[in-house]
Write a structure and sequence with these properties.
This protein is α+β, with helices and mostly antiparallel strands. The chain is built from four helices and seven strands, in the order αβββαααββββ.
Length: 145
């Protein structure tokens, strides 16, 4: 009896999930309702509601003040990373090489650092970039390999 009840419950829940309609945004900001019967229609919305849905893009430039100082790093972790050539100086050298600038043009904005991994937010040549460290490997955050 329990098996039949469980099977009935699963079938009822699956039919509920199969009937969902989806609302998506097109590239030009229009909202479209995609129906379960493979039809679609535009959703009429006033300009204020469309503007509230579209998120503003983050600024990719760094606006550093004159009195900007880089955050302090954990010296114990940096000492351990020295053997694997993954200290902050090596990270800055890699970023400078990737963005064709000098090491002096690379500034550390923020860091989340642990022994095994870290995320570095840097400013290179006026652009915000994010690098991550896994073990002793330093790569750009968007890259997988």
């Amino acid at each position: 009896m329990k098996t039949y009840l469980l099977l009935l419950l699963c079938l009822v829940s699956l039919t509920g999930f199969a009937q969902n309609n989806h609302i998506v945004n097109t590239e030009d900001g229009k909202r479209v309702l995609l129906k379960a019967d493979f039809t679609w229609e535009y959703i009429a919305a006033d300009s204020t509601s469309v503007a509230s849905i579209v998120k503003p893009k983050e600024s990719t430039t760094c606006n550093l003040t004159e009195d900007f100082t880089e955050p302090k790093l954990d010296q114990k972790i940096q000492a351990q990373l020295k053997r694997g050539r993954a200290t902050m100086s090596y990270v800055k050298q890699k970023v400078a090489k990737d963005y064709n600038c000098t090491v002096e043009d690379v500034f550390l904005l923020s860091v989340s650092e642990h022994k095994a991994k870290a995320v570095y937010h840097l400013c290179a040549n006026g652009k915000k970039v994010t690098y991550k460290r896994i073990g002793n490997t330093i790569i750009k955050k968007e890259q997988l390999f």
